[in-house]
Protein backbone atom coordinates (compact mmCIF):
# COMPACT_ATOMS: atom_id res chain seq x y z
CA UNK A 1 0.00 0.00 0.00
CA UNK A 2 2.88 2.34 0.85
CA UNK A 3 4.44 1.77 -2.57
CA UNK A 4 1.09 2.44 -4.29
CA UNK A 5 0.65 5.69 -2.37
CA UNK A 6 4.15 6.78 -3.40
CA UNK A 7 3.40 6.06 -7.07
CA UNK A 8 0.14 8.04 -6.80
CA UNK A 9 1.94 11.05 -5.33
CA UNK A 10 4.60 10.89 -8.05
CA UNK A 11 1.90 10.65 -10.77
CA UNK A 12 0.16 13.73 -9.41
CA UNK A 13 3.43 15.58 -9.04
CA UNK A 14 4.43 14.80 -12.64
CA UNK A 15 0.96 15.19 -14.19
CA UNK A 16 0.24 18.62 -12.72
CA UNK A 17 3.23 20.37 -14.38
CA UNK A 18 2.43 18.65 -17.71
CA UNK A 19 -1.15 19.94 -17.64
CA UNK A 20 0.08 23.39 -16.60
CA UNK A 21 2.58 23.40 -19.48
CA UNK A 22 -0.14 22.44 -21.94
CA UNK A 23 -2.37 25.30 -20.77
CA UNK A 24 0.58 27.72 -20.85
CA UNK A 25 1.42 26.72 -24.45
CA UNK A 26 -2.16 27.34 -25.59
CA UNK A 27 -2.20 30.72 -23.86
CA UNK A 28 1.06 31.71 -25.50
CA UNK A 29 -0.22 30.69 -28.97
CA UNK A 30 -3.41 32.71 -28.49
CA UNK A 31 -1.40 35.76 -27.37
CA UNK A 32 0.84 35.35 -30.43
CA UNK A 33 -2.19 35.27 -32.74
CA UNK A 34 -3.41 38.52 -31.17
CA UNK A 35 -0.01 40.16 -31.65
CA UNK A 36 0.07 38.97 -35.28
CA UNK A 37 -3.35 40.54 -35.88
CA UNK A 38 -2.04 43.85 -34.55
CA UNK A 39 0.91 43.70 -36.94
CA UNK A 40 3.51 43.15 -34.19
CA UNK A 41 5.28 40.28 -35.97
CA UNK A 42 8.43 40.11 -33.83
CA UNK A 43 6.45 39.97 -30.60
CA UNK A 44 4.23 37.26 -32.13
CA UNK A 45 7.31 35.29 -33.22
CA UNK A 46 8.87 35.43 -29.74
CA UNK A 47 5.65 34.18 -28.11
CA UNK A 48 5.35 31.34 -30.61
CA UNK A 49 8.89 30.16 -29.92
CA UNK A 50 8.11 30.11 -26.19
CA UNK A 51 4.90 28.17 -26.92
CA UNK A 52 6.85 25.66 -29.02
CA UNK A 53 9.28 25.08 -26.15
CA UNK A 54 6.39 24.65 -23.68
CA UNK A 55 4.31 22.38 -25.93
CA UNK A 56 3.78 18.80 -24.81
CA UNK A 57 1.29 17.65 -27.45
CA UNK A 58 1.63 17.26 -31.20
CA UNK A 59 -1.44 19.43 -31.84
CA UNK A 60 0.16 22.33 -29.92
CA UNK A 61 3.46 21.95 -31.73
CA UNK A 62 1.60 21.92 -35.06
CA UNK A 63 -0.25 25.17 -34.24
CA UNK A 64 2.94 26.90 -33.07
CA UNK A 65 4.87 25.88 -36.20
CA UNK A 66 1.94 26.85 -38.41
CA UNK A 67 1.74 30.41 -37.05
CA UNK A 68 5.51 30.74 -37.14
CA UNK A 69 5.23 29.93 -40.86
CA UNK A 70 2.40 32.46 -41.32
CA UNK A 71 4.48 35.04 -39.47
CA UNK A 72 7.54 34.36 -41.65
CA UNK A 73 5.45 34.51 -44.85
CA UNK A 74 3.99 37.86 -43.79
CA UNK A 75 7.55 39.18 -43.46
CA UNK A 76 8.43 37.78 -46.92
CA UNK A 77 10.76 35.13 -45.47
CA UNK A 78 9.61 32.42 -47.86
CA UNK A 79 12.28 29.85 -46.98
CA UNK A 80 11.55 29.99 -43.23
CA UNK A 81 7.80 29.87 -43.89
CA UNK A 82 8.12 26.69 -45.96
CA UNK A 83 10.26 25.03 -43.26
CA UNK A 84 7.73 25.89 -40.54
CA UNK A 85 4.78 24.70 -42.68
CA UNK A 86 6.50 21.37 -43.36
CA UNK A 87 7.16 20.82 -39.65
CA UNK A 88 3.58 21.78 -38.79
CA UNK A 89 2.20 19.25 -41.28
CA UNK A 90 4.56 16.66 -39.89
CA UNK A 91 2.87 17.04 -36.50
CA UNK A 92 -0.69 17.20 -37.88
CA UNK A 93 -1.36 16.39 -41.53
CA UNK A 94 -4.97 17.60 -41.26
CA UNK A 95 -3.90 21.11 -40.23
CA UNK A 96 -5.72 23.98 -41.95
CA UNK A 97 -5.17 27.72 -42.24
CA UNK A 98 -8.06 30.14 -41.82
CA UNK A 99 -8.15 31.76 -45.27
CA UNK A 100 -9.99 34.84 -43.96
CA UNK A 101 -7.23 35.55 -41.39
CA UNK A 102 -4.18 35.54 -43.71
CA UNK A 103 -3.23 37.14 -46.98
CA UNK A 104 -3.94 35.19 -50.21
CA UNK A 105 -0.24 34.75 -50.98
CA UNK A 106 0.33 33.18 -47.55
CA UNK A 107 -2.56 30.82 -48.10
CA UNK A 108 -1.28 29.90 -51.58
CA UNK A 109 2.19 29.14 -50.17
CA UNK A 110 0.73 26.87 -47.45
CA UNK A 111 -1.29 24.96 -50.05
CA UNK A 112 1.75 24.43 -52.27
CA UNK A 113 3.72 23.08 -49.31
CA UNK A 114 0.88 20.73 -48.40
CA UNK A 115 0.61 19.48 -51.99
CA UNK A 116 4.23 18.34 -52.06
CA UNK A 117 4.51 17.07 -48.49
CA UNK A 118 3.90 13.34 -48.37
CA UNK A 119 3.76 10.47 -45.90
CA UNK A 120 3.61 6.71 -46.23
CA UNK A 121 0.72 4.31 -45.75
CA UNK A 122 1.31 0.65 -44.95
CA UNK A 123 -1.76 -1.58 -45.23
CA UNK A 124 -1.85 -5.20 -44.12
CA UNK A 125 -4.74 -7.64 -43.85
CA UNK A 126 -5.11 -11.23 -42.75
CA UNK A 127 -7.31 -13.60 -44.71
CA UNK A 128 -9.37 -13.25 -46.84
CA UNK A 129 -7.39 -11.50 -49.60
CA UNK A 130 -8.75 -8.07 -50.53
CA UNK A 131 -8.03 -5.17 -52.86
CA UNK A 132 -6.81 -1.84 -51.43
CA UNK A 133 -8.76 1.23 -52.62
CA UNK A 134 -7.54 4.73 -51.67
CA UNK A 135 -9.69 7.79 -52.42
CA UNK A 136 -11.78 5.70 -54.80
CA UNK A 137 -8.75 4.50 -56.79
CA UNK A 138 -8.00 0.78 -56.87
CA UNK A 139 -4.37 0.18 -55.89
CA UNK A 140 -3.99 -3.60 -55.80
CA UNK A 141 -4.16 -6.56 -53.42
CA UNK A 142 -3.12 -6.13 -49.79
CA UNK A 143 -0.53 -5.77 -48.36
CA UNK A 144 0.51 -2.40 -49.85
CA UNK A 145 2.97 0.37 -48.96
CA UNK A 146 2.01 3.71 -50.55
CA UNK A 147 3.30 7.26 -50.60
CA UNK A 148 0.44 9.73 -50.25
CA UNK A 149 0.01 13.46 -49.81
CA UNK A 150 -0.20 14.48 -46.19
CA UNK A 151 -3.79 14.83 -45.03
CA UNK A 152 -7.01 12.86 -44.92
CA UNK A 153 -7.74 9.98 -47.29
CA UNK A 154 -10.41 7.31 -47.59
CA UNK A 155 -9.17 3.73 -47.28
CA UNK A 156 -11.29 0.74 -48.34
CA UNK A 157 -10.54 -2.97 -48.49
CA UNK A 158 -12.82 -4.80 -50.89
CA UNK A 159 -13.28 -8.42 -51.92
CA UNK A 160 -13.38 -9.45 -55.57
CA UNK A 161 -17.16 -9.91 -55.16
CA UNK A 162 -17.48 -6.21 -54.28
CA UNK A 163 -18.17 -6.76 -50.57
CA UNK A 164 -16.47 -4.13 -48.38
CA UNK A 165 -14.44 -5.60 -45.51
CA UNK A 166 -12.99 -2.37 -44.15
CA UNK A 167 -13.72 1.33 -44.73
CA UNK A 168 -12.17 4.23 -42.80
CA UNK A 169 -11.00 7.82 -43.16
CA UNK A 170 -7.28 7.95 -42.37
CA UNK A 171 -4.91 10.84 -41.64
CA UNK A 172 -1.45 10.54 -43.22
CA UNK A 173 1.19 12.73 -41.53
CA UNK A 174 4.06 14.32 -43.42
CA UNK A 175 7.33 12.34 -43.49
CA UNK A 176 5.78 9.57 -41.36
CA UNK A 177 4.43 6.08 -41.94
CA UNK A 178 0.86 5.23 -40.98
CA UNK A 179 0.40 1.50 -40.44
CA UNK A 180 -3.08 0.06 -40.83
CA UNK A 181 -3.71 -3.53 -39.82
CA UNK A 182 -7.23 -4.04 -41.06
CA UNK A 183 -9.37 -6.44 -39.10
CA UNK A 184 -12.66 -7.19 -40.85
CA UNK A 185 -15.65 -7.37 -38.54
CA UNK A 186 -16.79 -10.95 -38.16
CA UNK A 187 -20.56 -11.28 -37.95
CA UNK A 188 -21.97 -13.97 -35.74
CA UNK A 189 -23.73 -16.50 -37.99
CA UNK A 190 -27.50 -16.25 -37.68
CA UNK A 191 -30.57 -18.08 -38.92
CA UNK A 192 -34.35 -17.70 -38.79
CA UNK A 193 -36.79 -19.49 -36.49
CA UNK A 194 -40.51 -19.71 -37.24
CA UNK A 195 -42.77 -20.61 -34.30
CA UNK A 196 -46.25 -22.10 -34.80
CA UNK A 197 -48.51 -22.51 -31.74
CA UNK A 198 -51.93 -24.16 -31.74
CA UNK A 199 -53.46 -21.22 -29.86
CA UNK A 200 -53.19 -17.59 -30.93
CA UNK A 201 -53.40 -16.31 -27.32
CA UNK A 202 -50.43 -18.38 -26.16
CA UNK A 203 -47.40 -16.82 -24.49
CA UNK A 204 -44.05 -17.82 -25.98
CA UNK A 205 -40.61 -17.90 -24.40
CA UNK A 206 -37.38 -18.41 -26.35
CA UNK A 207 -34.44 -19.36 -24.17
CA UNK A 208 -36.43 -18.14 -21.16
CA UNK A 209 -37.27 -14.69 -22.58
CA UNK A 210 -40.78 -13.63 -23.68
CA UNK A 211 -41.15 -12.86 -27.40
CA UNK A 212 -44.02 -11.27 -29.31
CA UNK A 213 -43.02 -12.19 -32.85
CA UNK A 214 -43.46 -15.67 -34.26
CA UNK A 215 -40.56 -15.21 -36.68
CA UNK A 216 -37.17 -14.49 -35.13
CA UNK A 217 -33.56 -14.08 -36.23
CA UNK A 218 -31.35 -16.02 -33.81
CA UNK A 219 -27.75 -17.09 -33.43
CA UNK A 220 -26.75 -20.48 -34.78
CA UNK A 221 -27.22 -23.35 -32.33
CA UNK A 222 -29.86 -24.91 -30.10
CA UNK A 223 -32.71 -22.84 -28.68
CA UNK A 224 -35.46 -23.78 -26.24
CA UNK A 225 -39.00 -22.67 -27.14
CA UNK A 226 -41.81 -22.77 -24.55
CA UNK A 227 -45.50 -21.97 -25.09
CA UNK A 228 -48.23 -21.61 -22.48
CA UNK A 229 -51.84 -20.39 -22.30
CA UNK A 230 -54.28 -20.14 -19.37
CA UNK A 231 -56.00 -23.49 -18.90
CA UNK A 232 -53.53 -25.38 -21.07
CA UNK A 233 -50.48 -27.48 -20.42
CA UNK A 234 -47.10 -25.96 -21.13
CA UNK A 235 -45.27 -27.24 -24.21
CA UNK A 236 -41.50 -27.06 -24.69
CA UNK A 237 -39.37 -27.93 -27.71
CA UNK A 238 -35.67 -27.71 -28.51
CA UNK A 239 -34.80 -26.66 -32.04
CA UNK A 240 -31.49 -26.16 -33.85
CA UNK A 241 -31.01 -23.02 -35.98
CA UNK A 242 -28.51 -23.19 -38.85
CA UNK A 243 -26.74 -20.29 -40.53
CA UNK A 244 -28.68 -18.70 -43.38
CA UNK A 245 -31.61 -21.13 -43.15
CA UNK A 246 -35.08 -21.17 -41.61
CA UNK A 247 -36.04 -23.64 -38.88
CA UNK A 248 -39.67 -24.24 -37.89
CA UNK A 249 -41.06 -25.50 -34.60
CA UNK A 250 -44.70 -26.38 -33.88
CA UNK A 251 -46.16 -26.53 -30.37
CA UNK A 252 -49.61 -28.03 -29.72
CA UNK A 253 -51.17 -27.06 -26.38
CA UNK A 254 -53.50 -29.51 -24.68
CA UNK A 255 -56.00 -28.68 -21.96
CA UNK A 256 -55.05 -29.41 -18.38
CA UNK A 257 -57.50 -29.04 -15.49
CA UNK A 258 -54.84 -28.35 -12.86
CA UNK A 259 -53.14 -25.77 -15.04
CA UNK A 260 -56.42 -24.01 -15.80
CA UNK A 261 -57.26 -23.82 -12.12
CA UNK A 262 -53.93 -22.10 -11.47
CA UNK A 263 -54.12 -19.77 -14.42
CA UNK A 264 -54.55 -16.05 -13.74
CA UNK A 265 -57.99 -15.50 -12.18
CA UNK A 266 -58.71 -12.35 -14.16
CA UNK A 267 -59.20 -14.36 -17.36
CA UNK A 268 -58.54 -11.30 -19.43
CA UNK A 269 -61.33 -9.21 -17.84
CA UNK A 270 -60.96 -5.52 -17.15
CA UNK A 271 -63.51 -5.33 -14.30
CA UNK A 272 -62.87 -1.80 -13.04
CA UNK A 273 -62.63 -0.47 -16.58
CA UNK A 274 -66.12 -1.70 -17.42
CA UNK A 275 -67.52 -0.51 -14.05
CA UNK A 276 -66.15 2.99 -14.70
CA UNK A 277 -67.40 2.92 -18.30
CA UNK A 278 -70.89 1.77 -17.25
CA UNK A 279 -71.12 4.41 -14.52
CA UNK A 280 -69.96 7.06 -17.02
CA UNK A 281 -72.68 6.05 -19.49
CA UNK A 282 -75.36 6.18 -16.76
CA UNK A 283 -74.18 9.55 -15.43
CA UNK A 284 -73.97 11.07 -18.90
CA UNK A 285 -77.37 9.64 -19.84
CA UNK A 286 -79.15 10.94 -16.72
CA UNK A 287 -77.35 14.28 -16.97
CA UNK A 288 -78.42 14.62 -20.58
CA UNK A 289 -82.01 13.78 -19.53
CA UNK A 290 -81.98 16.54 -16.93
CA UNK A 291 -80.58 18.98 -19.51
CA UNK A 292 -83.35 18.12 -22.00
CA UNK A 293 -86.02 18.46 -19.28
CA UNK A 294 -84.56 21.80 -18.21
CA UNK A 295 -84.73 23.07 -21.79
CA UNK A 296 -88.41 22.03 -21.95
CA UNK A 297 -89.18 23.84 -18.68
CA UNK A 298 -87.40 26.93 -19.91
CA UNK A 299 -89.49 26.95 -23.10
CA UNK A 300 -92.66 26.68 -20.97
CA UNK A 301 -91.42 29.52 -18.77
CA UNK A 302 -90.90 31.78 -21.79
CA UNK A 303 -94.40 30.93 -23.12
CA UNK A 304 -96.35 31.33 -19.88
CA UNK A 305 -94.40 33.69 -17.66
CA UNK A 306 -94.18 37.21 -19.04
CA UNK A 307 -92.53 40.00 -17.09
CA UNK A 308 -95.83 40.88 -15.45
CA UNK A 309 -96.37 37.28 -14.25
CA UNK A 310 -92.79 36.53 -13.24
CA UNK A 311 -93.77 36.79 -9.58
CA UNK A 312 -96.53 34.18 -9.77
CA UNK A 313 -96.06 31.13 -7.61
CA UNK A 314 -96.23 28.82 -10.62
CA UNK A 315 -93.56 30.79 -12.48
CA UNK A 316 -91.29 30.95 -9.42
CA UNK A 317 -91.58 27.19 -8.93
CA UNK A 318 -90.89 26.64 -12.62
CA UNK A 319 -87.71 28.76 -12.49
CA UNK A 320 -86.56 26.95 -9.33
CA UNK A 321 -87.10 23.62 -11.08
CA UNK A 322 -85.10 24.84 -14.12
CA UNK A 323 -82.20 25.87 -11.85
CA UNK A 324 -82.23 22.51 -10.00
CA UNK A 325 -82.30 20.53 -13.23
CA UNK A 326 -79.49 22.64 -14.73
CA UNK A 327 -77.40 22.01 -11.62
CA UNK A 328 -78.10 18.27 -11.70
CA UNK A 329 -77.32 18.10 -15.43
CA UNK A 330 -74.00 19.94 -15.01
CA UNK A 331 -72.95 17.78 -12.05
CA UNK A 332 -73.89 14.49 -13.71
CA UNK A 333 -72.30 15.36 -17.04
CA UNK A 334 -69.10 16.41 -15.22
CA UNK A 335 -69.08 13.18 -13.21
CA UNK A 336 -69.76 11.17 -16.37
CA UNK A 337 -66.85 12.84 -18.17
CA UNK A 338 -64.57 12.12 -15.20
CA UNK A 339 -65.65 8.49 -15.09
CA UNK A 340 -65.09 8.17 -18.84
CA UNK A 341 -61.54 9.52 -18.42
CA UNK A 342 -60.98 7.12 -15.52
CA UNK A 343 -62.24 4.26 -17.68
CA UNK A 344 -59.71 5.10 -20.39
CA UNK A 345 -56.90 5.23 -17.82
CA UNK A 346 -58.05 1.97 -16.22
CA UNK A 347 -58.10 0.29 -19.63
CA UNK A 348 -54.36 0.77 -19.94
CA UNK A 349 -53.58 0.16 -16.23
CA UNK A 350 -55.57 -3.07 -16.03
CA UNK A 351 -54.19 -4.17 -19.38
CA UNK A 352 -50.65 -3.80 -18.03
CA UNK A 353 -51.65 -5.68 -14.87
CA UNK A 354 -53.18 -8.47 -16.92
CA UNK A 355 -50.04 -8.83 -19.01
CA UNK A 356 -47.93 -8.92 -15.86
CA UNK A 357 -50.28 -11.50 -14.32
CA UNK A 358 -50.06 -13.68 -17.41
CA UNK A 359 -46.28 -13.53 -17.41
CA UNK A 360 -46.27 -14.45 -13.73
CA UNK A 361 -48.63 -17.31 -14.45
CA UNK A 362 -46.33 -18.45 -17.26
CA UNK A 363 -43.31 -18.32 -14.95
CA UNK A 364 -45.18 -20.26 -12.28
CA UNK A 365 -46.26 -22.78 -14.88
CA UNK A 366 -42.65 -23.14 -15.99
CA UNK A 367 -41.62 -23.73 -12.39
CA UNK A 368 -44.36 -26.34 -12.03
CA UNK A 369 -43.17 -28.58 -14.86
CA UNK A 370 -45.11 -31.77 -14.50
CA UNK A 371 -43.21 -35.03 -14.13
CA UNK A 372 -45.25 -38.23 -14.14
CA UNK A 373 -42.84 -41.13 -13.83
CA UNK A 374 -44.23 -44.61 -13.42
CA UNK A 375 -43.58 -45.66 -9.82
CA UNK A 376 -45.29 -49.02 -9.64
CA UNK A 377 -48.47 -51.04 -9.85
CA UNK A 378 -51.31 -50.59 -7.38
CA UNK A 379 -54.17 -53.03 -7.65
CA UNK A 380 -53.39 -53.67 -11.27
CA UNK A 381 -53.24 -49.93 -12.09
CA UNK A 382 -50.34 -47.52 -12.67
CA UNK A 383 -49.28 -45.25 -9.83
CA UNK A 384 -48.00 -41.88 -11.07
CA UNK A 385 -46.55 -39.10 -8.94
CA UNK A 386 -46.82 -35.48 -10.12
CA UNK A 387 -44.52 -32.67 -8.97
Give an account of the 3D structure:
There is one protein chain. The protein is an alpha+beta fold. The chain has 4 domains: 18-116, Tetratricopeptide repeat domain (Serine Threonine Protein Phosphatase 5, Tetratricopeptide repeat), CATH 1.25.40.10; 118-182, Carboxypeptidase-like, regulatory domain (Immunoglobulin-like, Sandwich), CATH 2.60.40; 190-261, Sandwich (Immunoglobulin-like); 271-367. The chain is 49% helix and 25% strand. The chain has helices at 2-37, 41-54, 58-74, 78-91, 104-116, 257-261, 271-304, 313-367; strands at residues 118-125, 131-134, 137-141, 144-149, 151-158, 164-172, 177-182, 190-197, 203-206, 209-211, 215-219, 221-228, 235-241, 246-251, 374-378, 381-384. The strands form 5 sheets. Strands 3-2-5-6 form a 4-stranded antiparallel beta sheet, with no helix packed on it. A 4-stranded antiparallel beta sheet has the order 10-9-12-13. A hairpin with a 6-residue loop joins strand 12 and strand 13 (235-241). Helix 2 runs antiparallel to helix 3 and helix 3 (58-74) packs antiparallel against helix 4 (78-91). The radius of gyration is 42 Å and the shape is flat.
Instruction: Return the CATH architecture of the largest domain.
Output: Alpha Horseshoe
CATH topology of the largest domain: Serine Threonine Protein Phosphatase 5, Tetratricopeptide repeat
Strand content: 15-25%
Largest sheet: 4 strands, antiparallel
Spans of 5+ residues with little confidence (pLDDT < 50)?
1-19, 259-267, 365-387
Radius of gyration: 42 Å
Distance between the termini: 56 Å
Secondary structural class: alpha+beta
Assembly of the depicted chains? single chain
Name the CATH superfamily classification of the largest domain.
Tetratricopeptide repeat domain
Q: Give helix % range.
A: 40-55%
Sheet with most strands: strand arrangement: 3-2-5-6
Shape: flat
CATH class of the largest domain: Mainly Alpha
Determine the mean pLDDT.
79
SSE series: HHHHHEEEEEEEEEEEEEEHHHEE
Report the total helices. 8
Number of strands: 16
Amino acid sequence: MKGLATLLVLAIAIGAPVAARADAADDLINQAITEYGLGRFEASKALLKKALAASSRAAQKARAELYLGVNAAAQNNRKAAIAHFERALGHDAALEVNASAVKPRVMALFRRVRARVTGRLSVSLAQPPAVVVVDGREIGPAPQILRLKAGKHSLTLRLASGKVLYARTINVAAARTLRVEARPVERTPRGTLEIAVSRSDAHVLVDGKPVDSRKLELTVGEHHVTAWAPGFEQATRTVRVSAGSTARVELALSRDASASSKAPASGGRRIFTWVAAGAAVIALGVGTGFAIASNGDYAAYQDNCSESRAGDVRCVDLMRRIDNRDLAANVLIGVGAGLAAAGVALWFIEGAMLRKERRRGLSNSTARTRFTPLVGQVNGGSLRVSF
